[in-house]
Structure formats: C-alpha cells, structure tokens
Specification:
By secondary structure, the chain is an alpha/beta fold. The chain is built from ten helices and eight strands. Helix 6 links the parallel strand 5 and strand 6. Helix 5 crosses helix 10.
C-alpha cells in the first residue's frame, strides 16, 4: 500500500535533504511538497502570531484534502503552531525535530545542538527540555548558531555551509551527542562527523523513520 506524505516547508533549502532521506529510508512513500516561503521571513520579524497559526492550519487542511496519510513540517521555528495542528488532526503530524530529539535523549544526557537560523534555536531548546521533563530525565543542552552558514547555503555554496557547521563543533564541550537542528543542515553531517568522535543526528533521517512507523502502524489497525 502506498501512503501519501505531505511535506510542508518554509524554506526551499529544506526540500532536498528530506527527499534524500525518503529515497534512502522510505522510497515507496508518495511525497507531496508544499512550500510557503514567506513563513521564515515573517518569523524573523517577531513572535508567532494568530495569523501564522491560521496559515499552518490552512496548509494542514489542504494536505488532508488531498488524501495525505501523514504530515511532516520541515520548518523548525514554529513549534507551537505545529502542536496546534497535531492536537486537531487525527492523522500523524510531526514537528521537524520531534523524532531526532527522542533519538538524541536515548544517546545521552549532554546534548549539543547546532543551528543556522537563530529564531529556531530557543524554541527548539525549550521543546527538547519539555521532552526531557516528560521522560523524567535531566539534560544539559549546549548550543551554537552559525547564521553565516545559512547565508552560504542560500547563495549556493554548500561546501562553505558544511565547513561552517563543522567548525561550530568546537563551541560544544562535554557532550554525548550532536544534533543538527534544521533539515537544511543534513548535508553537513559527514563534515561534522569528521570534526568529532560523537554521534551526529540529523532531523530528516530521524523524521522519516518515525513518520513511517506512525503511518504504517495506523494503517495496520
């Protein structure tokens, strides 16, 4: 049975990494992409607004209307808006880093996180802490943000992006695992692994494994 998965993006650079993860980990899934490329620009100007929540609802409702069996948001700065969709819909809906955080907490209690989009960092730290509290575990979270890496990627210089992300590893000390915070950073994984002996997790790979299990499990009931 083929399942349609709707991928909702706020930036174009997130699209290729998640497609690559699907190709490797769940090629049979039918992928549908929705790109709303003003979301990240509007998010930079301030906090999440009621209008932004409505936009996330609209995108999700459109996905459902096409027969989507699951929804995966790839934009990491909009946690509360995605949570509202999760609470409203019956199909599996995943935040971009949800699965990676679960996997990261299994790797250790000292988490290092690298981001390239500053507005996404604090909400993600809060989300990870909330998940740790719910799991009744204590965590320490070290963070590094390299916005110039995102600028390089947007300019088409992937190699420079990877180098800058890998360079941020030196800012993280006494960690058990390193998380690459955004989907757009997945291509830097090998460069980061070359700069550390720690396990390195990316959100696209973790997300594909998790949404596949959720969708196929629901279909089997």
């Amino acid at each position: 049975m083929t399942h349609r998965i709707c991928l909702i993006h706020a930036v174009q650079v997130a699209m290729a990494p998640i497609e690559a993860s699907f190709q490797r980990l769940w090629p049979e899934a039918e992928r549908m992409n929705l790109l709303e490329d003003r979301l990240s620009a509007d998010r930079k100007t301030g906090a999440l607004t009621p209008d932004m929540f409505r936009r996330f609802d609209t995108l999700a409702d459109y996905a459902v209307s096409t027969g989507a069996a699951g929804i995966l948001y790839t934009c990491s700065a909009f946690g509360p808006a995605i949570e509202a969709v999760q609470q409203r819909l019956s199909i599996p809906v995943f935040k971009p880093n949800q699965a990676m955080f679960v996997e990261g907490l299994k790797k250790g209690r000292r988490i290092g996180m690298i981001a390239t989009f500053d507005p996404s960092l604090q909400p993600m730290v809060e989300e990870l802490r909330e998940m740790a509290i719910a799991a009744n575990v204590d965590v320490s979270i070290a963070t590094a943000c390299v916005p110039e890496a995102m600028q390089a990627l947007n300019a088409g210089d992937a190699q420079r992006h990877h180098e800058l992300v890998a360079g941020a590893v030196s800012q993280l000390r006494d960690c058990d695992v390193i998380l690459l915070a955004q989907f757009s950073m997945a291509g830097a994984r090998e460069a980061v692994e070359a700069a550390t002996t720690l396990p390195v997790l990316t959100s696209p790979d973790s997300a594909v494994v998790a949404i596949r299990a959720a969708v196929e499990g629901r279909a089997a009931k």
